[in-house]
Amino acid sequence: MAELRIYEIGKNFYVIKSDEKDFHRNIYFRKFVGENGKMINMIMDPGTKKDLPNIMLVAKKLFGGIQNLHLIFLSHQDPDLTSVVPALMATAPRAKIIASIDTWRLLKMYGGIPEKRFLAVEGFKGDILNIKSTGHQIRFVNATYCHFRGAMMFYDMETKILFSGDFMGGVDSRVGEDVYATEESWDGIALFHEIYMPSSKAVKETINRITLLDPFPEIIAPQHGDVIKGGLLLDFLSRAYNLEVGVELLAKDTPEKDLTIMAINEFLNKIKEIYTSFHDRLVERLRKVEDFTPSFIFKGDEVSDLKLSTNDALKTIWKMIEALSEGEDINELRTYFISALDQFNVEPPFEVETSEDSGEMIERTGDLDGKDIEDLIG
Ligand SMILES: [Fe+2]
Ligand SMILES: [Fe+2]
Questions:
Q1: For 241-266, how does the pLDDT look when each residue is reduced to its tens digit (9 = 90+)?
Q2: Which single residue of 45, 96, 259, 369 could bond 81 by disulfide (Cβ 3.0 to 4.6 Å)?
Q3: 249 CA to centre of ligand 2 in angstroms
């Protein structure tokens, strides 16, 4: 096993990464050290039971052991960040949980966490926690519906680091070690937000709350993906502000997407008999999970959903016809594909040759010609 790296992203503010290469967890530690030498130790979104050995190791290195952990901040209740909490509470007898009441309502279902060890964010006057013994201040910031109703972020006034939970998190699209975002990180952030954030209104309002912070954060530290700083911080926030996510994508996609899926299935069915081995190679490739989630969702041999735009889906298949051909007639395969799109009135998002030959072939293979589209979509 590779040695655990602890990254210091701000003064006494640390992060470790879980070892998944596609979608990892960031676990943050903060030592609040007062001028008087007093120390308050905190962990943010501690993770799963798998993370407990690493948490104990880091606690030992940073503040002499898990018994010296005082605070556990939870951005929301998802198991990727809370399932270690019952075990952690048992190993860190002094630790108290800080979370929203909405989070606690679900968190306590784990059982065995006494209510007196929970501090509600709503109980802190002005959303500010003053750590009197060290002189530090933490400001809590709502991330309402990003992606959970009671989601909460916190802003560390000394380091100007905003710990943002799932917000501005991403799946891993940047290659390489280290923890800081590059331009490559954006694709993973966009994908994660498109899937997990329910609406762009919620995203916009959360960004508005961030922009009101004074002083403005220098670093955004999310629970997944990369730590964002420098010029990318405002850049990524403004891109996120304009991103369509969740229900907007759902509402926008439906009619067009359904027809596209039907056309793809028509194509697959057609070539299944004529080009069986090519069909099997194509289906195998489309099913392959190379990214965070598969882009083509199958039920049996049929596509049931697309997790990418309809244009991207069609372009992918168009390219794969050439890439996966092992001696099959590429032109004929492409003609079958165009023919299937044509039957469902789906506009191809790529250049199609309109020679007389291919025109004939479209006619010959268009065995659904004459049927009403309403018959086909039920
Ligand atoms: Fe989550
Ligand atoms: Fe998460």
A1: 999 998 887 766 667 888 999 999 99
A2: 45
A3: 21
- The alpha carbon of 224 and the centre of ligand 2 are apart by a number of angstroms equal to 6
Map out the domains of the chain as residue ranges.
7-243, 247-377
Q: What is the dihedral of CA 152, 156, 160, 161, to 10 degrees?
A: -50
Segment 255-312, tens digit of pLDDT: 788 899 999 999 999 999 999 999 999 998 888 765 555 778 888 888 988 877 788 7
Could you say which DSSP state residue 199 is in? -
Q: In whole angstroms, what separates CA 85 from the centre of its chain?
A: 22
**191 CA to middle of ligand 2, Å?**
14
The alpha-carbon radius of gyration of the chain (Å, integer) is 26
Tokens 């998802």 -> residue? 78
Q: For helices 310-324 and 276-287, what crossing angle results, to 10°? A: 130
Kindly state the helix (H) or strand (E) to which residue 303 belongs, with its residue range: strand 302-306
pTM: 0.73
d(CA 140, CA 153) in angstroms, rounded, equals: 6
- Residue 17's SS3 state is strand
Q: Which CATH number fits domain 7-243: 3.40.30.10, 3.60.15.10, 1.10.3720.10, 3.30.70.270?
A: 3.60.15.10
Q: Where are the beta strands (DSSP E) in 183-262?
A: 219-222, 228-229
